[in-house]
Amino acid sequence: MNRFQKARCQVDKEEDCAVNERLRTQPCRHCRPPWGWMCSCRLSAASAAPLALNKLGKERKSLYEDGDVVIGGLFPLHYSPVSSPLTYNVKPITSTYNYARALRWMQTMTFAIKEINERTDLLPRLKLGFHIRDSCDDIPVSLKASLLLANGQPEGLKGNAGQDEATGLGCETVNRTVSSVIIGDAGSGVSMALLRSLGSFHIPLVSYFASCSCLSNQREFPTFMRTMPSDAFQIKALAQLVLYFGWTWVGVIGVESDYARFAIQLFLQESVRYGVCAAYTHFYPVGLSHQAIEKLLNVIQMTSSKVIINFSGEAEMQDILREMQRRNLTGFQWIASEAWATSKSLWENSANLLKGTLGFAIQRAAVIPGLQQHLAALTPSAIHRIAFLAEFWEETFNCRLNGSANAHNHGLGSQQSRMPCKGTEVLHDVYSPYSDVTQLRVSYNVYKAVYLVAYALQDMSNCKAGEGPFVKNTCADPKNFKPWQLLHYMKLANFSTLGEEVNFDKNGDPIAYYDLMNWQTGPDGSLDLVKVEESCLFSHLSECLNFASQALRSVCSSSCPPGSRIARRKGEPICCYDCVPCAEGEFSNTTDSLDCSRCSGDTWPNKARDLCIPKRVEYLSYHEFMGVLLCAASVLGAGVSLVIIAIFYTYKDTALVRANNMELSFLLLVFLTICFLVGLLFLGKPSEWLCRIRYPAFGISFALCLSCLLAKTVVVLMAFRSRLPGSPVMKWFGTKQQRASVLLGTTVQVIVCFIWLLTSPPHANHNKDYHSSTIIVECATGSEVGFWLVLGYIGVLACMCLVLAFMARKLPDNFNEAKFITFSILIFFAVWVTFIPVYMSTGGKYIVAVHVFAILASAFGLLLCIFAPKCYIILLKPEKNSKKFLMQR
After folding, report:
1. What sections of the protein cross the membrane (predicted)?
2. Alpha-carbon gap, residue 742 to 704, rounded angstroms
3. Superfamily of the domain at 625-722+729-887
4. In angstroms, rounded to a whole number, what is the distance separating the alpha carbons of residues 105 and 73?
């Protein structure tokens, strides 16, 4: 009944229905409580006339079978390829396409109800009936059909489970049993519209194909349940799938519907977590016009993405593929949503476009026993009374049944031009999605939905009086219950069917099970839907699949190799970036690294900056060329000093040796030998003990040399000054005083070094700061003050020597040792004055080399300037090595 036929009843516990006398010709026979108390009355023609509405056509045919409980069903048996706006002035465009798959879904529902009715262990005292209507995958049509199911629409043909046609508002009809639960609809958007309309009446709606995650909101849709998993699980799987193959730059398209909008929104949110970006997001209308397809394909062509994820139904995908085929747009990898992941009809004319398609399909039932026979049990004589099947028969065999009202045209010829059906047609002779039971996915969902209702009714029947879940522990009557009471048991349902445990979470969603499908070409060119086995999912997935292009890459920016990092481009998606080499001292050992990591203090990145390797340890080694040269020079200097000692010892009785203060000369040669050998302490890998010896040895050895020089200079100067009559100078500067002066001059240096060693001694240090890729093993001075005091004291001794030698510059030429001392000290100064800036500006092993070079250069300067002239006279000019010659002016 529509709202003009309904009359509200004033009801209490003791009274029958009382209806306004103006609207009835006789008392209400009974009251029915599908959503409250409502009267089913017969209206007189006179009273109905003012309320009648002019109708623009006939009601859509339906399929009905009576029972104690009638289950409503909504299936998209037709759909219209182009949506037309409703003007309410003309009849809407009739749906023109038939869904063979939806017919199979419908038949699965009737089969499941028949199977349950034949069982003795499930609802033995209750007969299930069905009332199935065509939703046309359209909200207005589906809403109207659902209201007719909930109302129990008047039947034009009494007591017959067949087709009905509305006969206006006349009351001379028999009412059908109200459907207290509806299985449907297929579309998420349609289901949402139904729930918003029927939700206040608490009529349960169980969908077999609506997957929108928005429907999991129990606060908004408390009466909704489904045997189809929520998109939330599929979307996560899709994001991980494209990431697995490195497809981080994907196009996302979808039909203009709640299903696609929520799915794409969820995918965009999920993809951010996995580093996948949408090159574009495009929605197209349900009825794809030529302009809409052109706009969509232009978007696809304008971007570099080669992977397309499409959230739509089979019909929209068909139109898109047709235009792509015309434009010869190939080389794309399609990712299918569950809505078309197993649609074999798409393959017929677009195999070259769809080869390699991937998609997650809902779990398939291996087999539903008896369903294939039920589907095939159609003969021309048996289908006249079922309009849906009669239409399908005519379209499948391109013939005309007697008395058919089918006016649809699918391109196989008009109804008038078709030949009459022979009556010998057999479904086994042709292929049709209707009879194809190899991919029972949605059909299996329908099957489970029916069993969900059946097991809920079984639980309701098992309720014991006084132990019920309702007010005052009451139970519901399985033959006369309210919809919300059935919903209570449905929410708690937990059953097993075909070996699968079926249960639901708090949102009314089932546990998600998906099959990853790969579209491959069969031996005969047909579509081979290959399920990827679980063993592949966890190992070598790419080896189990077939792609549109084996070398397919779909990225906005190429992967950043190890040794570089990602630098985001401002204002662009996160998948669009530049690759920047890691900074000095940093490395990255993974592809597409967001940041480079610093190497530890003892390591340094290699040239590719993808690995940290131990830093090169640097010190002045004996084995390298520079070390060999310095070592040879040190040994040579020490050897020359020893040779001169030998020469002087051999000629110790000659005038030249005796005249030059033989004892101080021998001491000076010994100390110079030590200075040469001290240079060797600066070679090799520094250690703690070596560093503590190195600097004091250097300072003390040179203090000894310069103290000896100072004593020799004083002796020379005093010797000539003592020739003056009555001069007592030499008496106060004899041999003992000379030794004491050397000892005194050296003692000051020893004290400085001792204090240095006690306070802040030199130590081995691993310098990691001077050169980032090298660890310099060096001797740190410990105290800079101590080092410069040692060096400064050597400079003081050298200055004193220079001043005294300069004062002796006018001594006799044949015995002018002071002149040679002056030259040696000038060389000494030149070396060490040059050493200071070089020492301050050099690092690593080179500073050690400079130090050793300064030691050797100053030692050689002293040795050669002072002793080379004497050796020349001793060895080559022996005639000059006499007292007479030395005393000459």
Report:
1. 625-651, 663-683, 695-720, 740-759, 787-808, 820-840, 846-875
2. 7
3. Rhodopsin 7-helix transmembrane proteins (1.20.1070.10)
4. 10
